[in-house]
């Protein structure tokens, strides 16, 4: 995993990102080229562009800067960042997110990001971003993509996502949720501010479950079968929350496109997390690492198995210390490295 630190205006940040990740972006595109019909792209792109100009001008400038810095066509970078998810999309990926609202190491966010391909992983990077009009942040994403909604800012707000799905119709006039969450994190000093910002306008995307926690220990889960969005609050006196690859709110139980069998692993992970986390005597960093390294059934640190899913990277955000720990690959095999904001 490549770590880069960039600062300046949105366009300067994009240029610096493109230059620093030029080879990794090309590798990403060679392994996973955007499979978008040219005629359909040409027809739909003007509406995408108008939406970005209206709601996310800074992110638009960053995308344009990334294309210039990487010396890659602007259309290609846009296609990485503006995927045309079909309404019929069935999501197979699995990820696990956990937050603790306090303990000797302060409130923590932990995440294992999982994918399906062991030998054809998308190249991942960590970007430390100091935009001149925003809160500094660390974001983890695939090279060439602005954001995947995994990161923490310098105010101690941390958020992670799991892919789920959405049965609802979406419009090209809606803002891509990953890009909107990226901008929201750069503007939010608390969990409450992040929720208010993220839910201001309708978004589009494949549908996600999120957890968020801030330096004061305020936590929640944001369940977003786009363009729908609802907040799941913690139970009274709860010390932890999690999100995996299904919606835990009963009202959204059928808002994804996953079959019952397709949700078995996610529900097994969620049940394991609820049981094991409720039994902890201390919500500290050591126990967060232990959970992220757990081998099943069900596994949180994943090496294939019946669902052929592999952990691509693992992160832990220490919200009060403004530090993020990360492992490129399986956390059971490597030592966490540190990035300080």
Describe the structure.
- The protein is α+β, with helices and mostly antiparallel strands and 341 residues long.
- It has a domain at 95-122 and 160-178 and 188-340: 4-Layer Sandwich (Penicillin V Acylase, Chain A), CATH 3.60.60.
- The chain is 30% helix and 26% strand.
- The protein has nine helices and 17 strands.
- The chain has an eight-stranded mixed beta sheet with strand order 1-4-5-6-7-10-11-12. Strands 2, 3, 13, 14, 15, 16 and 17 form a seven-stranded antiparallel beta sheet that branches.
- A hairpin with a 4-residue loop joins strand 6 (151-153) and strand 7 (158-163).
- Helix 4 (57-70) crosses helix 5 and helix 6 packs antiparallel against helix 7 (191-198).
- The longest helix has 18 residues, at 38-55.
- It is globular, with a radius of gyration of 19 Å.
- The model has no long low-confidence stretch (mean pLDDT 93).
SSE arrangement:
Blueprint: E1 2-8, H1 10-20, H2 22-31, H3 38-55, H4 57-70, H5 74-81, E2 95-100, E3 108-115, E4 124-131, E5 137-142, E6 151-153, E7 158-163, E8 175-176, H6 177-185, H7 191-198, E9 203-204, E10 208-213, E11 219-224, E12 230-232, E13 240-243, H8 264-278, H9 285-292, E14 303-304, E15 309-318, E16 323-328, E17 337-340
Parallel strand pairs: 1-4, 8-9
Antiparallel strand pairs: 2-3, 2-13, 3-15, 4-5, 5-6, 6-7, 7-10, 10-11, 11-12, 14-15, 15-16, 16-17
Short description:
This protein has 341 residues and is α+β, with helices and mostly antiparallel strands. The chain is built from nine helices and 17 strands.
């Amino acid at each position: 995993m490549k770590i880069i630190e960039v600062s300046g205006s949105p366009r300067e940040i994009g240029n610096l990102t493109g230059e620093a990740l030029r080879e990794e972006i090309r590798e990403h595109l060679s392994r996973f080229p955007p499979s978008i019909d040219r005629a359909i792209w040409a027809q739909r792109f003007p509406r995408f562009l108008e939406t970005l100009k209206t709601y996310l001008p800074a992110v638009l400038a960053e995308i344009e800067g990334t294309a210039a810095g990487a010396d890659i066509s602007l259309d290609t970078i846009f296609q990485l960042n503006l995927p045309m998810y079909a309404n019929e999309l069935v999501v197979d990926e699995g990820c696990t997110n956990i937050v603790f609202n306090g303990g000797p190491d302060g409130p923590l966010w932990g995440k294992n990001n999982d994918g399906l391909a062991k030998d054809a992983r998308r190249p991942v990077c960590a970007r430390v971003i100091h935009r001149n009009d925003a809160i500094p942040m660390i974001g983890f994403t695939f090279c060439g993509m602005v954001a995947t909604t995994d990161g923490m800012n310098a105010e101690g707000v941390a958020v992670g996502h799991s892919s789920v799905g959405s049965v609802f119709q979406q419009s090209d006039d809606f803002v891509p949720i990953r890009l909107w969450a990226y901008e929201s994190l750069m503007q939010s000093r608390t969990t409450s501010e992040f929720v208010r910002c993220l839910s201001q306008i309708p978004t589009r995307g494949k549908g996600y479950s999120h957890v968020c926690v801030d330096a004061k220990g305020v936590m929640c889960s944001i369940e977003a079968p786009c363009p729908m969005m609802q907040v799941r609050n913690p139970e009274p006196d709860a010390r932890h929350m999690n999100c995996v690859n299904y919606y835990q709110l009963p009202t959204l139980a059928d808002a994804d496109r996953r079959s019952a069998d397709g949700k078995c692993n996610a529900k097994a992970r969620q049940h394991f997390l609820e049981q094991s986390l409720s039994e902890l005597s201390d919500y500290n960093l050591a126990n967060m690492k232990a959970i992220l390294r757990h081998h099943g059934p069900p596994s949180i640190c994943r090496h294939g198995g019946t669902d052929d899913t592999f952990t691509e990277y693992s992160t832990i955000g220490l919200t009060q210390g403004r530090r993020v720990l990360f492992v490129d690959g399986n956390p059971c095999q490597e030592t966490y490295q540190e990035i300080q904001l």
